[in-house]
Amino acid sequence: MASTLTSILVHATFSTKNREPLIPVDLLPQLFAYAGGVCRDMQSPLMHAGGVGDHVHLLISLGKTMSIADVMMHTKRATSMWIKNQRPGLHGFGWQDGYFAFSVGHDDVDAVRAYFDRQAEHHASRDFQGEVLAMLVKYGVSFDPRYIWT
Length: 150
What we know:
Layout: E1 8-15, H1 28-41, E2 46-52, E3 55-62, H2 68-84, E4 100-104, H3 109-117, H4 119-122, H5 128-138
Antiparallel strand pairs: 1-3, 1-4, 2-3
Helix pairs in contact: 1-2
């Protein structure tokens, strides 16, 4: 075969440092646009995004030569710097050290997009930690609760 063709969709989510609600809601659309540019530069287009003041969700089409670790490192670094420069009081902004990432089937893309779009409604009754724990169980990810939030 002369070409390498891939289609790997990833749902990535990560929170602010200590899960503090530091992201101004009115900045979310611009933040997602900026994150989309970073992902595009890494040949991993951002297909959709959502979030609230303490975390974001990204649906990424992972590029054929990219690792999710590299995409997350660059995206988190760039968006952190971007947020710090948006307005006074955000100069101390930071993301949590890690991230959570799950593969997404093509048949599930519409449901994932809808889930991202309903984040504010969803988090009226469940916090980020509860959301992540439910995803870890759903996707069968092994974890040690002593270390998951450090």
